[in-house]
Design goal:
This protein has an 8-stranded parallel β-barrel with strand order 1-2-3-4-5-6-7-8, surrounded by 6 helices. The model has no long low-confidence stretch (mean pLDDT about 95). The chain contains 10 helices and 8 strands. It is an alpha/beta fold. It has a single domain, classed as Alpha-Beta Barrel (TIM Barrel).
């Protein structure tokens, strides 16, 4: 099984090097917007483009990824909301298991259905323990998953969930407050989780300022993912990247 991109996540974590990913929802971009994101991403030297969404209703996922791949060398990682969100043109796939919920379809059911297609895609597969944290507002992912998020102040539940996911073999842990979250995940929860796992920790949802991105990294996040805020203000790509890169490697 391919592990090239996953190894960069692990190596960066060992070095204490923080990473930044711009999340692109295919439903919310045009070819012109993608060109802007690519240009700004190259200029800022972002680490990844994550592509996907909780409810992708357009049919241009492949075209979106092909446009990115044709114009830059920034790795493209699929962040799928359903088994239909798989494109062989990407570099890797976050194979998400919703370990924070109790919906068997999103723990393993949809994976059984998608496994043959995912295997045939040739993508690098990164098993990911996906944890939805209450961001203070109903989100698409909570509605679609039919699962309650982890309460924002229950750090121990988040910690134990992440530990269980890691011991079950998840290679990455992804904590997400959801698209459009009113409240981002607290630094206290991030620190509690990060201090009890060895897997790279991805954090997203409700991160709207460079300062918050910086604080999340200081708390223990290895990869910061921002989507909604950048959709509203493209200049945040450079500001977020600068804030994250201001943390000395190994700090």
């Amino acid at each position: 099984m391919k592990q090239a991109l996953y190894n960069t996540f692990v190596d960066n974590k060992k070095l204490g090097k923080k990473s930044f990913s711009v999340l692109i929802d295919p439903d919310k971009v045009t070819p012109q917007t993608i060109d802007q994101l690519i240009s700004l991403g190259i200029e800022a030297s972002i680490d990844y483009f994550f592509v996907g969404g909780s409810l992708v209703i357009s049919n241009h996922l492949d075209e979106c990824i092909q446009q990115i791949k044709a114009n830059c060398d920034i790795p493209v990682v699929l962040f799928p909301g359903s088994p239909s969100q798989v494109s062989r043109y990407a570099d890797a796939l976050l194979y998400l298991s919703l370990i924070s919920g109790r919906n068997p379809e999103l723990l393993i059911g949809q994976h059984v259905i998608s496994a043959p297609y995912v295997k045939k895609s040739g993508l690098e597969i990164m098993p990911t323990g996906y944890m939805v944290i209450d961001g203070g507002a109903p989100t698409t992912v909570s509605y679609i998953s039919n699962a309650s998020p982890i309460p924002a102040d229950k750090n121990e539940i988040a910690m134990c969930t992440a530990m269980a996911g890691e011991m079950l073999g998840m290679k990455l842990i992804y904590m997400d407050a959801g698209s459009g979250a009113k409240k981002p995940i607290t630094e206290a929860m991030i620190q509690t989780v990060a201090s009890h796992i060895e897997s790279p920790l991805i954090v997203g949802g409700g991160i709207t300022t460079p300062e918050k991105a910086y604080l999340n990294c200081k708390a223990g996040a290895d990869v910061i993912v921002v989507g909604n805020a950048i959709e509203k203000d493209l200049s945040l790509i450079k500001e977020m990247t600068d804030a994250i890169r201001s943390i000395p490697i190994g700090a």
